[in-house]
Write a structure and sequence with these properties.
Length: 42
């Protein structure tokens, strides 16, 4: 998936029924944190 800045990208990883979206800094923002409290940043 294309990123928010040229050269940045995200990766969707799925295995065994579990999905992880690796976004770098694209989702580390307060609006997503409050809209999706079940999402975890690792």
């Amino acid at each position: 998936m294309a990123g928010h800045t040229p050269g940045h990208m995200s990766v969707l990883v799925a295995s065994g029924g579990v999905t992880m979206l690796v976004t770098g800094d694209a989702l580390a923002n307060i609006h997503f944190a409050f809209d999706h409290p079940d999402w975890q940043m690792i």
